[in-house]
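Hi R.,

Here's the input for the iron/sulfur cluster complex you asked about:
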Amino acid sequence: MFFRGAVAAVAMNREPGAVVADRVLAWYARGHRSLPWRAPRGQAADPYRVWLSEIMLQQTTVAAVRPYFKRFLGAWPTVEALAAADLDAVLRAWAGLGYYARARNLHACAREVAGRLGGRFPDTEAGLRELPGIGAYTAAAVAAIAFGRSAVVVDGNVERVVARLFAVTEALPAARPRLRELAGTLTPDHDCGDFAQAMMDLGATVCTPRNPGCLACPLIDVCAAAAGGFAGTLPRRAVKAERPTRRGVAYWLEDGEGAVLLRRRPEKGLLGGMVGLPSTEWEAGPLPDRAAIAGQAPVRAVWWPLPGTVRHTFTHFHLELALVCARLSGSGSATGAGGFWVPVTRLGEQALPSVMRKAIGHVLAGAGTPTAHS
Ligand code: SF4
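And here is the predicted structure with iron/sulfur cluster in place:
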């Protein structure tokens, strides 16, 4: 394992890890990805931009993050500005990136940095980890990139490079501690931000998942998987269980003034604190029957089913959501249905999660709202 690198390093009288770090840094210096959150070479990185991009990039691609990052910086160019923003405005700007707890933590973290910390992010991994929404990976990435700390930064790209370099055949996720340990043997105590970003770039542009471009890789002569001809098979992954499907029914309740009932979901749990149409529980099994739909409805009414369903995929399950509609003759606020009423024409201004945008789109584009009322 890694024998070729070790041999080469001994020949050069260098530690194998140092050889890899030097090669990767030299490759990075010759040209790297231009990303809007990166500081130009030779300039200090802005911790706010680094932190914002790292939070956005969790579970999301660079291409998806670019427009969001631009929009956030345009609206809130500093951590103080973000801290002063209304949470709903932040959630609205985040809509479509998913994992809304991240947006809520982003706002909470900005408030803590702008308030308790006087606008300065902590410059150590330990200090960063005390802030809302900052886990081990993000703390390491911000510490290395924004503050030049020698932190071990291991995202999916780095995981892949390390697994191949050392020919780690153990499957993910069990292999993670080992991969992190091996990544630590490569991490230098100089140019730490560049090294972290160089490894990410190498994984994203050369050591790609399906067809690694080994011939263009600065590590080809020290890479165990390339030498063995099985780079494309690594990292291995444990077979994932099939995502289950849950089903539920959402209620479109329109009043005589053209307003629709929305409710805020509980703070804890899926889509915590987000606004949406009232709905039944989302559970495995068939769609709820008429009695269950009537039993969980926000008011007693004649509920009309809309044809078709809305499908949405969350991390751990697929959702199939049916819609039922009712129209009241008077003002909705008098019904005691809980939640709040928003004119149909202003629904687009709400910070709605993607699944609720789909559901509302389904109603508006579909069969239209019913004329019946109770
Ligand atoms: Fe990845 Fe190939 Fe480079 Fe090895 S030689 S690190 S497999 S691109």
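One thing worth noting: Residues 100-114 form the longest helix (15 residues).

Cheers,
M.
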